[in-house]
Amino acid sequence: MGAYILRRLLESALILLGITLVTFVLLYLVPADPARQIAGRSATAETVANIRDQLGLNDPLFVQYGRYLWNLAQGDMGRSYLQRAEVADLIAARLPASLLLMLSAIVTELIIGLTIGVVAALRRNRPMDHSLMIFSFVSISAPQFVIGILLLYVFAVKLAWFPIGGYGTAAHFVLPSLTLGLLGAGWYSRMMRSSMIDVLSQDFVRTARAKGLAKVRIVTRHVIPNAILPIIAMIGIDIGLFMSGIVVVESVFGWPGIGQLAWQAIQRIDIPVIMGVTMVSAAAIVIGNLLADLAAPLIDPRIKTK
Amino acid sequence: MTRTLLTGIATLALTATGALAQVDENAPQGGEMVVTYQDDVATLDPAIGYDWQNWSMIKSLFDGLMGYEPGTTTLRNELAESHEISGDGLTHTFALKDGITFHNGREITAEDVKYSLERVTNPETRSPGAGFFSMIEGFDSWNAGEGEGLSGVTVIDDKTVEITLSRPDATFGHVMALNFASVVPQEAVEASGEDFGREPVGSGAFRLAEWTPGQQLVFERFEDYHREGVPKLDQVTFSIGLEPTVALLRLQSGEADVPGDGIPPAQFLQVMNDPAQAERVVEGGQLQTGYITLNTQMAPFDNVDVRKAVNMAINKDRITQMINNRAVPANQPLPPTMPGYAEDYEGYAYDPEAAIQMLADAGFPDGFTTELYVMNVDPNPRIAQAIQQDLAEIGVTAEIRSLAQANVIAAGGEADQAPMIWSGGMAWIADFPDPSNFYGPILGCAGAVPGGWNWAWYCNEEIDARAAEADAMTGEGQQGGREDAWRQIYLDIMEDAPWVPVFNEQRFTLHSEGVAGDDTLFVDPVHIPVNYDYIYATEAE
Q1: Tell me: the pLDDT tens digits for B429-439?
Q2: CB contact under 8 A, A47 and B131
């Protein structure tokens, strides 16, 4: 197990290194000049050249990349070109909000998705099953921006049950978590339904029924614990999905997370911030997958770490 | 021999705004206002902030020697008690008002003025506004990183500073009213270092009380502000991160007072068709022109007749309707609210038949194929499609290149890359209300360089010389002549047709019942979206 974890950590470090390289090269190739963005429209060519020089943008790509890695190794993610603040500080100020939102969205998607999946499987091919599957289809297909605005309009403006966007109290979490979680809930309900149907047709379930066990007990003690295993492994992958979703959800709900920061940085070619946010997001995805892989054998002993 | 500045440019500006705004100096003090924005504020450092969101915030936190009468483009003394100009227009002497303090309690001196000007022009500050001060003697060497400071700025005594220019420049008063000329305390800048933009200390009507990144900024009244009775509000809260549609919902439910990003285009008609909301919308002009650049160095736009034909092909009324009439059609580079605007100029009227004929005469009877660059944010791609359709009518096939803003700017800065650019989303908004501000970077030879903003790559040296002459007209009786000179410059530019001026955007500011003030404060030409210092809370009445 120890060797496995060590190998996976090394792999993760290599993946992150690869991501820094790809992102750096892509930003280098973008046909836009950050120095010109900083210099503004009244700047002379000399001013722009001077800024390029100060930021080291005239150096060859590998020199710039090497310098970035060297600083990163020392914990220095650089300063934002536009805000002039430390990138690490900008991210640190926003990461907790994004992580909390992600956590509450995971809880939301599991509660909704698993419940729908279980109910639909038990009512297979009946009107209840069909309606729930239509619901899951809609939640997968509808754009998060539209869902967010709709939820805000109905539950915050019309019914005034929740605040109209913002951050701070438990009430602020409900609508963004729901918006972010509905997409995953749609997937999970479909996966849970088919997984349940699969388990329900297994021999041990038939045996349990033959022995005269109550249906509730069969479902809760034998079917759900077996059906849920493949779902758990999915949560790690979800983090990647959420990372793209939070950009939209944070912008609709005014959530002060890194999605908002990333969006603004991309608009203005703020390279140090784009690099920082990409690194942190990639690290979150890699760690999420690693944890899911490590947790899998603990939950399902049939999976072995090789 | 000296004279005061206000007889000069300010009179010129007055002709544009018509009259002084009726700002109620006795409006009640107290109460608060909530302004919403989608994007977080990049910085509040006056040497660095240069977007329309932080521009007005910085104006409320900092003061410079010069400023504007609220709601107008009329210059007035701000920190300066007086401003005298030598007969040759080269020496400007400013005397500071007594007893004005920074937010940290220290009194402002002439040394602070010198320090602030040297800071903004110091290459290490990387200020996007440094170039505005190029007329100050010693700028070139100091901005190139040589010497000990700006040699043209001299401290005469504690309260007097003398600024020597290398050339007479009628726009200098406006330059000294830019945010970049704000006076900052050296000790606070040095204590905060690169973080001064997050911990600003100025002498403006408000001081920064709280900044929670991504969530909100709170401005509190500066009790010792040098103008009595200003600001009107006790507090302004900027609620950050709100998508414009959500911001409108907040305003409608009474949780916000001004949507800083404006009325979202998709909800514009809904707001305007609701009498209760429409009566709280203030409409005003804006020193902005949206235009199509025609790259004069790329075939076939190197042919003036082709450029004129394209000018006649564009149906500007239809484009204006497409954006719900939030603009007025344009026929010249200057917007109607700018001094020097030619009222009776008719421009190139929409006439596709004549355009086809002109193209044929120019040697393009079958039209040609070209590219139209556009920023990829609504409504600009839609406007580009309308332009594309208009061009198709005269046989010109334009392929649309819809790109991120930075990429369009980069393409425009290359001599041979973008034959046509629709300027929407990057269109020129004047930095200060003077006709010269629409020339240099976007139509002058100085801007027609790699990385410049003159995307038409138009360079007419004869007009460049006339522009320099017009800016040197600083004499007392010359303001009318200067305005005429600039008017003629823009009309002559239109003869060369490097642009298709399309429209001048209007501003529509929606506000809640909770705040009030003269209408001009809600469409203040230099405070966008609104003038935070003079708006008052109705609850304070």
Answers
A1: 888 889 999 99
A2: yes
